[in-house]
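seq/struct pair 1
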Amino acid sequence: MELYLTTIFLLILLGFLTGTISVIAGIGGGVFFVSIMTLLFLMPINIAIDTSTFIILASSCAGFITYLKQGRTNFKLALTFGVFSILGSVFATILFSFIQIDNSMLKILFALTLLVAGLNMIHKAIKAKGGLTSKDLEKGEFSLLDYDYKTNLKKAIP
């Protein structure tokens, strides 16, 4: 991929926006990074996923340092998840060195993961509102645009 001035500007802009959203929402940002790389830059998904992993490492470290300074880090939970996350990553790396998955299957797995995560977030948003009835739908009373993300963001993220 050749880097032209417009490409560099686009990378800076999208990187800044994605990093900001990722830290605010408490997600790694891989969903955004992989989507941007595959859709905008036409990168093969396997390379986009691997590149995204490196980007997530850098952006997550920045968020972690900020939250650490603010005293918002639960070390016991972070260490427990961290150790088993590393073990799972090592296991997956070893497993997939023997089992080859082509890019079309990776795209399907990625899309299904996004679908499940999105449906889960919508479900949690509806549940946080107190439920959704058919009367709400008829009246048009429920809208994700009316959802108070600032106070309920934590409840709506899986």
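seq/struct pair 2
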Amino acid sequence: MEAFPGIRPYRPFPPGGPTLLLVITGTATSGQPAEEPPRRGSDPDDTLEAAAVDGTAVAEPGDTAGTRAAGEAEPGDIAGATAAVEPEERPDGAAAPHPAARFLRSNRHLIAVSVLCALSSALNWTLSLLRFAHFQVATYDLVIFDQAVRGYSHFSAPTVPLRGVTGGFGMDYMQLADHFSPILAVLAPLYWLHDGPETLLVAQAVLFALAIPFVWMFTRRVLGTPHAYLVSVAYAISWPIAQATAVEFHEVAFVPLLSAIAIERLHAGRRLPGLLAVLGLLLTKEDLGLMVAGIGVWLFFTGQRRLGAGLAFTGVAVFEVVRKFVIPLAGGNPAYYTRYSKLGEDLPQMLWSAVTRPHAFVAMLFDDHSKWDTWGLLLWPALFLCLLSPLVLAALPLILERLLADSDNWWSTGWHYDAFVVVILLMAGVDGAARLIRWLERRGVPRPGHGLRLAYAAAVFAVAVTTVPYRPFDNLMSPDFYHPDPRTEAREQAMSMVPDGVVVEATDDFGARLSGRTTVLWWDYQKRGTPWIVASVNNDLRGVVNSYLNEGYELRLDREDIVVLHRIGA
């Protein structure tokens, strides 16, 4: 049987895909030199703070940014970075280079970064789709997002029966009542091509990879070109991205890209695309208003006080309005996921607790071994140098939100939560390394710049490589991962017995595979009269199965601890 019935062949990028993204965000120059933004002096000790008033980037010691000629391309721009004009004839009379060679040379960075994006997306979707094919993906939360995006694709409400029925809210429960993520609607057109959760897995793989050009441009501007490639690869194989890929699809799919665009473009002085990315963050999840507030604080402390204060206020305001008004209006409970019983019921009470009980507030950040692990695993990929950059303030609110919560699920690194801040922390590490080097230069350390820059980027790359064997990308190196589970044939037989368009209750291993053609509910042993039940069972559940047989169900399949039940007359 075909591994993915009905799915169309997938190309990691359409022709011109990375270039189109860079044009939209104002970074590609199509071979033309980028206009030099005005600068505020040429003191080599000037930092981002000195130029941030007008939003321009400042050259780092050893960079070419501060010494390039007027009209020369900005170092961060991929297309403009390689737009060199070759003479038609060499001075010695030799023939001019072949046009193809000229094209490759003048666009070498754009091509290299595009290849890196394609490889990264292929790595991500290979892991996701193989897990999907082998029944290794979970019903929660992939089916919830699949049902929501399907609703958008049909120009109807994003109802999520799986979440609604399990929570006692009914079949018409909306995803917006669970989490405020209207950005999911942008994925709806993809469902016109293939209607199924595989589409979400591929989309997330591509979205994760599309953050790479902006990580590259930021790092190139601050440290240099070779360093940009090392840090970009470190992001692509980072453990937060691997972990988020392994736990299927979540709203976090959009966050590395949007946060990378926001930070890189605002750092480059391109406010419009940066602010559009900030708007995208506000539409991704209700608590990302806290990230936007953190970005505002970063801008405030690096000189852009008016813009920074505006973003900080907007982020907090949107966070409060969405939680207190929008989610309840949609039928949800904003406190369901975020409970802070030790600090207060809302953000103002939490802030008051931090002011009046600072020691208790700080102690809560380290009162469990899993929190220590999370701190270490978040900061170590940037070699802790992210703590030297004010950019770390953009990630801090989300980290505090997790570690101060009552739920211990939020404290660990076994889910997708770390991918929300991975780009920010890596960029902050790059900025922190540059600040450390400038500090050493001001203290008379002889020429520490180039060597330390390269050493830092190489170390970040090495750390990322060393984490691969301990995280889900390691599965791709195991031959066993590419072979189906012995029970796969029985699972495929069970699914083939379920008609299209019916309501079916399923266990974790079946829900996602059935979601594209049925309405999937969670099998939690509550007798709802659902027409079909497909489940993996063990000896402890045999009694539950027998109770269904005594209440109007017939056993259609019982093979290798996999059962299919059908309600008689349904």
